[in-house]
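ENTRY TYPE: paired fold submission
RECORD: A
CONTENT: sequence, then structure tokens
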Amino acid sequence: MLTKNIAEMEKTSMNRRQFAIRLASATAGIAAFGPAMGMSAKSYARIIGSNERIKIGVIGCGGMANAHMQALLEMKESDNVEISAVCDIYSNRLDQAKELTQAPAFNNYKEILENKDIDYVLIATPEHWHYQMTLDAIDAGKHIYVEKPMTHTIEQAQDIVEKVAMSKLKLQVGVQGMSDDSYETAHKMIQEGALGKVVMAHIDYSRNYVDDFWLDKPDADAKPGVNLDWEAWLGPAPKRPWDPERYFSWRRYWDYSGGIATDLFIHRVTRIIKSLGLSYPDYAVSSGGTWNFVDSVAEIPDTHNMMLDYPEKTTVMLVSSMANDTPIRHVIRGHKATLEFTRDGFTITPQESTNVAAIGKAGENLGGNELFTHKKTGAEDVTLHHRNLQNAIRENEVLKCDSKLGLYGVVACMMGVQSLRQRKYLKWDAQSETVIKS
């Protein structure tokens, strides 16, 4: 199971839970990479002047990391940043990253963390490593850009929020859609009454694969013990014999991924959480299964649908299929008006029955069936997302997707994963801050 079973979660206190996961993860990290190599807790990072070059270490050099590295290389002169180190446990990927960036290359990520010249690290590894690497980066006094989801479990995300709060470090979660201003603007307008009482939001993220889904062809050159450290890659995950499909197609397995929820829904639900100012759901329920790719060895389903009820008396619905990519409208429904997100921003359309939608100071005052349109600034873009982190480091700019927003996204998605795997209707216990049976 991805988290403790429900009975255990009802009995476990916050302090005991956090102590247990920190101890278990620390043990896993030592087992995978050896002794702590002189790591010690630090409360602050090196102070960086507004004109000083920011130096970045890249941990994980797979597909998504390559998109990041390309963006950061293009920012080198305009934003005064530099990739100063790269790391991967597979030599072929590491060599490619070294050639691309012309930066020193390492097999052990802790060697990057030991480098006092590194200002922030990009963590672009499979999900099961996000937590430990983030903890180690905080202990080393590094700012962090961690790919989504922030962590693999709810408990880990709670721990990261507390650890970041005790430091003076900046942590950006890689939900780069938050660098589109539409969601901040929508939140202001909704708070000012543009939609009236919000009752529902629905959004999707679907794809259409042909023969199988999320299947990446293994590299025939990959040889554990020769050019790939399989034990280090497994890290805190259960130990298994070498399996090239698990390595190259890790998103298909629960040990390393939350499937559709943590790879796709995390992008969508974070938008809704930001727009509506939500935090923890009251209830969660999921449906779905492997409906099309019935011969696939993937553990995760090809269809996943989630419903989340929030204490604000609002339902959030998320829909996904890996066998049909016809989209649904991305809308927030209020009693007075409906907000629909578009490629260019969003529109607000009054309900005919109310004949009015009070927009407030964030936009026009509307009457009748008039339509309001917001044209976005920013975009769903890793360059903008990195720039926001860099500005936060240099000038204390507000982060677009900080650890708290990262936590709320993890809670929503992992409650959906647990509901689907357990076939249970689940509740968030606000007192213990754990998931329990409804």
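RECORD: B
CONTENT: sequence, then structure tokens
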Amino acid sequence: MSATRRSILRFSPALAGLILVASLSYTLPATGTPLVEGVVWQIDTAHLQPHGDWARLGVSDLLVQWTAVDNLAFVAASGLPQSTPLPDWPRIGQEPWARHVILGLAGRFDETQARTQASLLIEQSVRLAQFPPPVHIDGWYFPVEVDPSWHDTALLTSLLSRLPRPLWISVYDRGNIGGHTLALWLAGWLPPDVGVFFQDGCGVYARTPPVARDYADALAAQLGRGRVRIIAEAFRPAQGGGFRPATATELSAQLADYTGYRSYLFDGPHYVSDQLVEDMLALAHPTAASTPANHR
């Protein structure tokens, strides 16, 4: 789940226009309904201490992308070189947006290296799972992303059997083969006790949110609804290159299409500021958002 990696997907100005139109005509959620259930934290050395107002959106789930990346660990006693300082895990474990944590294991920033070194990452992940941080762990996440261009899935099936359960991976569709075909591909090799986070592709205008919802429905029909969650990409291409945070209108419309699925913002520390949270609340509940008692 990297905005840099996602930029390899084809950018479509026409599709960007359709997304803009859709974002101006979405239905607001009912008062009290979470706007989104989860947030992703992609740890790097510049984002070791996550803070945010994400709980105001209804977030109670934290997906930690990894606890070690490129042989640098963000937890103690893993046997790998250790980040200095470490994240303040006791504080994070008490945050309202981290009541339920799915803990990522060992990964690489570079996708090609991650796939080539999957066996090594499994070894590191087994070790990391033995020394978890003090948070409420609801599951585990192996952060080597999959799509149908990865042909050695038989090896991955075997490797995943070594990791603790409940276990999750993430999947995306670089080739736009469609949700039904993607679901059949996954069902052909994915262990039946492993869940998937579907990366919606909206961050690079690979598809519109309604089409992403169709993908999720196809995955749920094939794998079971309980095994499917959605990564809502909270970034968009920026003029001149790189990425910017999605606007409140863009992101609110995107999430509205995913009603019924547990959705996770990618990612909180990089793209979902307190001001963006405030703007989303103002769209959803104009009177409540303007009341001082609702501010921290």
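NOTES ON RECORD B: The two ends are 30 Å apart (CA to CA). Confidence is low (pLDDT under 50) at residues 4-12, 18-30, 291-296.
STATUS: closed
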